[in-house]
């Protein structure tokens, strides 16, 4: 295969890195910030936790986050084992291709790209609505949500082309801001002994608490909140000592994300009181302000100033997530171009070794997904955000499952790693847990997207449709790649 990459004018990269993203650019913490940005901590806490409390298992929601973390950890063990033998910006599709064959890998590449572009478009919807509301509140100017979304697409494109180091620095600032205030609140509440009913450890983590209500729904939201941790492998080519950095970043990401969501949600339940948390979350949802359930106890603890700061941090949280998914998606496009599955022009790098051409295409895709909702006058939160985030989570869960199966097949065939726990037991347990999560998501998809049953079915069908489309593209391009090779 022709591995030479076209380089933008006026750039003169080292020939040894032609066709590659910039190596030795990211350490463990840099990758961690990209992962935490994709998680959008404040968005996940303020958007998902109140809903999970109301329609899930009430005060037992923190236990659902722990359970989801265990499933993801089991998946990560096989994921990391594969990553020690495969380093590629394509991550999922490369891993799946190694075990289940090139066609399956190519089909999954389409699903991965679809998932990242869909979740980014969803975040543009919520981001546009949030910024529009903030601007109107502080200035009185009423500017449509989609205007802010389009302006931000340009900013994201520029930052993405500026290089991975610049993106990591920008994300670090935003993530630290939102992460710090939530963790500070959680620790203050914990050391004060909790809320009006104490810490309520048994109320949130006992078996009875975990299994009350609809624990499956809570687990579904918890798994959805983990979306994005797998990006650790996407940055393998740009990591320092990837065979050590990526595993460390993966395990650290899973531990931090799980601990953060479980601990913060526990302290929020405690702050309201376990016996009253569900009712108060229900009132917040009925009033159309789910985030108020989260913001109110923080304001009570730190002061009214947080009422002005937290909505701004919600906007920056979404911006950080948008930038993180832009970087993930353009690296998939770059890798697919390098493999010959998409035009090789996508492998064009600029002087900073950034895949600017792939980034430009990704930005166009984002605009194509967002603009129809603007033109049709749809609510950006109730439709764009809800629909696309739901379908993205379903797509990503399918990739997790296929990757776990591929890990088992790859190591049984290659014997490159004979550790049974890492290459067989943990991946199988992870696959079973993920299969259960997929069933829960499908069963409760209407709830997840906040829509009707017909819309839910059509959105679910897009995932297998994209998988089939990827398989077809792989078949059509196989001959061309063989000739090139």
From TrEMBL:
Pfam families: AA_permease (PF00324)
Protein's cellular compartments: Membrane
Principal location: membrane
Tree of life domain: Bacteria
Keywords: Membrane, Transmembrane, Transmembrane helix
Transmembrane segments: 26-51, 63-83, 104-123, 143-164, 171-191, 211-229, 249-269, 312-334, 355-375, 387-411, 423-442, 457-476
Amino acid permease/ SLC12A domain sequence ranges: 45-448
Membrane topology: Multi-pass membrane protein
Coiled-coil segments: none
Protein name: APC family permease
Gene source species: Streptomyces akebiae
